[in-house]
Amino acid sequence: MVARRTNLYLARRRFKQQHGCQPVRNRFHNQDPLLGLDAIWRTVQRAKAGKILDWVLWRARTYGPTFASRESMEPPTWLGGRESLVTADPENIKAVLATRARDYGHSATRHVAFAPLLGAGIFVSDGARWHESRALLRPSFAREQVADLASLERHMGLFLSLIPRGAGDDTVDLQMLFFRLTMDTATEFLFGSSVESLRALKDSGGGGLLSPSASDSAFAEAMNDAQADIIFRARLGMFYHLQSNKRGKAAIKFVHEYVDRFVDEALRQDAEKGTKSNGDEKYVFSHELVKATKDRKVIRDEIVNILLAGRDTTASLLTNLFFVLAKRPDVWRKLKQEVAELDGQLPTYEALKSLKYVRWCLNESLRIHPVVPMNDKVALVDTVLPRGGGPDGQAPLFVEKGSIVTWAVYALHRREDLYGADADEFRPERWETLRPGWEYLPFNGGPRICVGQQYALTEAAYVTIRLVQEFARIESRDPGPWVEGLGLTVCSRNGTKVGLYRESS
Ligand code: HEM
């Protein structure tokens, strides 16, 4: 034991020398210096107050772009809690996601928290299993026009019909409608048949536009409960087994059984048709997947993963964007001017690409409110980050096997040295000249970059344009600032309460 430790110590000393590593420049000192358990308490308290991201930003601005902290909820080592390195440095993030991606994997927390719902799907897997998932999914997203605009318009019609036709006197929570819309479009894309949660709301009389109490489709509810279960487990980290969430378990079972029905149907249709296809059928994701594999469990896992990946992300982007737009008549006016180029016609794929200001607004929303604001990986081997060591923080930094590297996209996107003194402001015009690389990472980077990026941006642009076409004016009915609602994604905690006017005055 002593000899093994001595050898390890000497090997690591050599490794550090070879790579020119120096001690981390800054360290955040925990109140509990051994296990860092105060981090769990602090996270719970800050989550309650909607202040986790403020804290993330404050620490990056106080301790510099890369610092060490003992705050991981991973199982401790024999020496105490695991060390985390927190970074908002593009070079370091590039190392974790691209140049040294093989040195990292998902943390034990992610496996434990996500696996009951997501099985061995793309979000939970690493190494060879991930390669298989990615290869399986990539062709299904390869078609540029993967988002179906005709289907989107049908759901959008329902969405718009739920907004009162008055003069903007009613207050509408667009957030609730966005979440239903993306659930409806995602299930149609995945299964070929939508859960129609907007229709359920309409059939219930459209009441409760300000509260999510109107009865939702059972699947959408089960998916929410299953997701809540994941978040709860992830927050408990190594203490996850102390909880028993019957509601979460039942929801996961329901989701799996529901998805299995569509998997079986896709397999049945595939067996009937064989490889024959007349080429003009509707694009259905589960049907594409069964062309690549007949393994029922693999197909189900991947579908549930895509649903989780695709639904809340796009809805959160729209929620955050419209929260800001409702408070920015100047930006709304510019959007209206640009969208007027369509002459009242429904947007086509070409139009979606050509409307630059719409794209700038989406980019800017994802910059100041990145929907996945933080992420982490665990070092699978001893490795190195290019920066963060030495007195000026410019020297390479040793990362011990088992350490967690957290990258704070929220802090990265608000770095004043990268985005200017107005980094905290929503200013779409900055995208006229901005061409960021690793400084801008709403969709992750490297080999694990989001596969649904084009799908998401197409859907978000379409919805934005349709709302701008439909309404002359939008007015915020929330006097407060944007407050974070942090789950697997981040969106406005208080919804997006607005008045929408069809006439301009
Ligand atoms: C605004 C919308 C979206 C944003 C901001 C976003 C962002 C991200 C981010 C940050 C990741 C990396 C997550 C991680 O593994 O830790 C990711 C991965 C992924 N996203 Fe998205 N996403 C969006 C929409 C979508 C949509 C609509 C789909 C599918 C329809 C999708 C499918 C995926 C998949 C499958 C992965 C896993 C990729 C892999 O590990 O190889 N995303 N996305």
UniProtKB/TrEMBL annotation:
One annotated GO molecular function: heme binding
Keyword Repeat applies: no
Keyword Protein biosynthesis belongs to the record: no
Keywords from the UniProt entry: Heme, Iron, Metal-binding, Monooxygenase, Oxidoreductase
Domain of life: Eukaryota
Entry-linked CDD domains: CYP52
Cofactor: heme
InterPro entries: Cyt_P450, Cyt_P450_CS, Cyt_P450_E_CYP52_ascomycetes, Cyt_P450_E_CYP52_fungi, Cyt_P450_E_grp-II, Cyt_P450_sf
Entry-linked Gene3D superfamilies: Cytochrome P450
SUPFAM superfamilies in the cross-refs: Cytochrome P450 (SSF48264)
Entry binding sites for heme: C450
One Pfam family hit: p450
PANTHER family, per the entry: P450, PUTATIVE (EUROFUNG)-RELATED (PTHR24287:SF17)
Similarity comment text for this entry: Belongs to the cytochrome P450 family.
Name the UniProt record assigns to this protein: Cytochrome P450
Originating species: Apiospora kogelbergensis
Lineage: Eukaryota, Fungi, Dikarya, Ascomycota, Pezizomycotina
